[in-house]
Structures are given as structure tokens and as C-alpha cells.
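Exercise 7.
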Amino acid sequence: MLRRQDVGHRMVVRRIVGVRGGRTLFSDALGELVELTETHLTLVTRKGKLRVPLAEVHRAKRVPPTQRPIARAVAALELAANEAWPAPVQDRLGDWLLRAADGWTGRGNSALPVGDPDRPLAAAIDAVREWYAERGQPAKINVPLPLAAPINVALDQLDWTASPLVLVQTTPLTALLDALPARDDLPVVQLTPTPSAAWLALISARKSGAATDAAPDLPPGAWHLLTAVDQVRFAHLYADTGTAERKLVGIARGTVTGAGRWLGLTLVEVVPEARRQGLARHVIRALARWAAELGATDVFLQVEERNSGAVALYQRLGFGTHHTYLTRTAPAADG
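Solution. The predicted structure, written as C-alpha cells, is:
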């Protein structure tokens, strides 16, 4: 018997499709239950939406999480990524995570809908809105796909806006190191447990679009996101300017999370005048060697699909898309 609580869960639905020779014919459909009315149910399947009259439903059953290896892999990586980018404020809505970091970055200030919110989907979405409203922030939900496809459909219906699609890409750490030969002609990359003022200035320039040599006045939540990880390193690559003062030309951040399995690469940046010289590869290699020494076996990163240059670089390094996500933002409240 289907119940409202089944909405938002993965289901196997056996439906009656006809009668032949006096025998009832059945067909099974697997997908996320996104709608249940008095007359119909709607599944999101691999082939798209499927609307089935309840009169044709012979049996319906939830798919236990243990029978969903792909979903488990996506959920595990999303949780490892959350460890690598830890919001200082985190609450739970059932299994979902609610995160706030003084408004700095979408990932640090959005709900992560992995697992069961312990209430119907509509009520969970309302609870997310209320939680962020209490903090004076717009409600955002990071929607991993295809894991949270029903949530994405529900947010479409509620007119939540969507940010550009983000690719979560992975590769084995050994394969990444094989793709990154050593460069003896480049300066040694310095790895530090905290970022320098110059490092922070480059990130500020990247996010604001305006170059500056001054360290930004980051909110406390930003500093927590960057540094509150047990295993984290900030890569600094300096160019020799011929004077006593060196110029920082390349940076990146690396973390090891997920019970020591995952190297997470974030904030890879090279100043415009130093690009196309292999500097991004050089700083990535330094972080990969560091992570390998800690016993990490795999690498992940997140890159916007529309960032064609970065996507092409990571493809050449052997990265493939593990899954994707959208950051959805609630429409402004009326009045």
C-alpha cells in the first residue's frame, strides 16, 4: 500500500499492462516516487517521468539503500566533500545536512539532501526554508544528481532557481600522478597548513573579479571552511621576479577526507599572466604527492560544466564525471 511517506523514495512498481490468454501481464518500473495523488503516481526513471494510474498498480515496494550501490557511492562522496568544505554551523533534518558559513560560497550555505529527511519531501523543503530564514539567508539546496532527482523535480515545481551545473569528477590517485611528470624547471611548490595573505588575496580576486594584493577581510565562516579540516594543505607557487620580493602565481587547496580515501582538490588558480605554462599541473602534483604519502587512493574535484578550459585540463589528467549537482535557491518570499 502506497503512502505519502513514500514520496521522495526509490521504488519498484509492478503494474498491470494487459491480459493475454486469461493471464494478467505485468511490467516493473524502477524510479524515484515524486508524486502520489488519489488517482496516479509519478516515477522519475532513467527514461524520464512515468505516470501510472493507481488502478494499474499491482504492487509497490521501496528499494532499500543497501540495494543501491550507485546511490551509496554518490552519498559517500558527497559526505567526504562536506568534510573537505566544513561549514561552521551544521544541523540535521533527519539524514539531511543544513549548513551555514556566513554566506561565503554556495556549498557552505546550502542543505545537502543525502538520505532520509524523516518527513515527507514537501515538509522537508519547507523546513529548509524556515531554517535559513531564521538565519537571514536565502534557502539553498545542493542537489546531487541522479541521487536526488525527485528533489530536483519538486524544486522545479516550486520555482527554485538553479545555478550552473557542476561536475563532480574523480580519478585514481596513482593515475593522476602518472599523468603529472615532475617539472625540475619550475620552483618547488610550498605546502602550508594555513593560507598566506597573498594566497587569500588571489582567492578574493577570483571571487570578486578584481585583482588585489591585499588579504581580504574574510568572515569567520570562510576561514572555518578553508582550514577546519584535520588534513589540509595550501599550495603556494612563487615566481622569481629578480628582486627580493617573490610573486605568488599559482595556488590550490588539498584535503584528505572520507576515512583517508579521498584527496579533494579545490581553489586551483593561476594568475592570468602565468597561464599555459603547466603551473596548475605543477601545484596539483605537489598536493597529489602529499595525499599519497597519507595513504589516499582517489581524487575528487568539482568544476562547473561551462568552465570549458578547466574541464579540458581535468579530462587530460584522467578525470571522469562521477555525478553532478545543482545548487537550487528558493524564490524570495512574497512581501
